[in-house]
Design brief:
It is a single chain. This protein has a single domain, classed as Glutaredoxin. Strands 5-4-3-6-7 form a five-stranded mixed beta sheet, covered by helices on one side. Strands 1-2 form a two-stranded antiparallel sheet. 38% of the residues lie in helices and 19% in strands. The chain is of the alpha/beta class. It is built from five helices and seven strands; from the N terminus they run αβββαβαβαββα.
Length: 176
């Protein structure tokens, strides 16, 4: 009994450690197929409209959770912009879900402009969508959704070079 308790405690601490260092540049859990269907959601966009996941039915969607205070998020963003530009005509879209609160909305606008984020930027100030897809609130965190709406991949963290594997998965999903 004592051994099982120690093991459970060690696992809980390891999970907490992984979740807390993802934004420091250490990758979280490796990407792995998740299965299941991505639940629809709606969020306000930076430009004052509303976007729904279902608006992009039939497309390959990358939901990217990020923040203006997350250095790995900002390092990854130019790669996502390039990937979007390269594949948008084939049915690929990036939904950049900002976890910044209302007090930093001006920073979000500034980063979006500076990083040339030409895809939809959604505001999850109440973290309702984040809680559903990314309950540990890892940053950055990505969910890749197939044309049929199934979740192909979830991954937390970013290290230079991760974008290569992501692009291969996007290309595969676009070909299906």
């Amino acid at each position: 009994m004592m051994q099982a308790t120690r093991c459970a405690l060690a696992l809980a601490l390891a999970s907490l450690c992984l979740a807390s260092v993802s934004c420091a540049g250490t990758p979280g859990a490796p990407g792995s197929p998740s299965g299941g269907t991505a639940q629809d959601f709606s969020l306000p966009t930076l430009d004052g409209k509303t976007a729904r996941l279902s608006d992009y039915a039939g497309k390959v969607v990358l939901i990217d959770f990020w923040s203006t205070t997350c250095d790995p998020c900002l390092a990854e963003m130019p790669h996502l912009v390039d990937m979007y530009k390269k594949h948008k005509e084939k049915g690929f879209v990036v939904l950049a879900v900002s976890l910044d609160g209302p007090e930093s909305r001006a920073q979000v606008s500034s980063v979006v402009h500076d990083k040339e984020m030409i895809f939809p930027v959604l505001l999850d100030e109440e973290t309702t969508v984040t809680a559903r897809f990314n309950p540990k609130r890892e940053l950055p965190f990505q969910v890749l959704v197939s044309k049929s709406g199934s979740i192909l991949r979830k991954r937390g963290g970013y290290q230079p070079g991760d974008e290569k594997a992501l692009e291969q998965e996007v290309e595969k999903a676009l070909g299906e």
